[in-house]
Amino acid sequence: MTRTDAKTGALVLFSGGQDSATCLAWALDRYDTVETLGFDYGQRHRVELACREGFRSAIARAFPAWAGRLGEDHMVDLSVLGSISDTAMTREIEIETAASGLPNTFVPGRNLMFMTIAAAIAYRRGLKVLVGGMCETDFSGYPDCRDDTMKALQVALNLGMDSRFVLETPLMWLDKADTWRLAEQLGGKELVELVRVETHTCYLGERAELNAWGFGCGECPACKLRKRGYEAYLAGEKVTEAPL
């Protein structure tokens, strides 16, 4: 990796899903240089990773002003996370509520590891802004998606790396309908359509049928939330239900 000279550069955690794709557009609208970072941790819906380059290419074609800002893409092998996680995101098991009260799609430590590695890469690249799609409105109760967690992590990273990183979470207080609306505000109906068709959310990795709200099985918690959000967006309503 080489170091960028951009003074207003951001690194976006980009999985290939709806939320991170919207965050990528948000960053491209604000920063001079925007790089992306993805993680392969053995997720059962790893088809999302195959959507990453397609969305990057599509957004560059559709929005020439953003194309010049879109920088390098980084992919990190975090298979160790999958190997130590016994969750419905990393094992072929039924999605349900665990004894802890959290859905068993919760991968302990995932966002903490993601942001720490992102900071290490950003440090070497000269990027000061880290952007993630964490959300405390539609988040299934995941503790590593909470605003307090991200604020505490920002402090820890800056102390540990003697730096001045800023962790941006533009979706933190938005529901899924609001996330669709944000995409429209950033890039009009064209960006909404790119998010609908080019991103992936389904926990089961189903990508055979294009629904009105995008690809997916339509039955897993992620699909239900995305569908409800899209329908509420079209109707001008709000959706605040968690997926489980």
Describe this structure in a few short sentences.
The chain has 244 residues and is of the alpha/beta class.
Main traits of this protein?
244 residues, alpha/beta, five-stranded parallel β-sheet, 8 helices, globular, disordered N terminus, nucleotide-binding, ligase activity
Can you describe what's shown?
The chain is α/β, with parallel strands linked by helices and 244 residues long. The protein has one domain: HUPs (Rossmann fold, 3-Layer(aba) Sandwich), CATH 3.40.50. 43% of the residues lie in helices and 13% in strands. The chain contains eight helices and seven strands; from the N terminus they run βαβααβααβαβαββα. The protein has a five-stranded parallel beta sheet with strand order 3-2-1-4-5, sandwiched between helices. A two-stranded antiparallel sheet has the order 6-7. Strand 1, helix 1 and strand 2 form a beta-alpha-beta unit. Helix 1 packs across helix 7. The chain is globular. 48% of the residues are buried. Its cofactor is Zn(2+). GO terms for molecular function: ligase activity. It holds the Pfam family QueC.
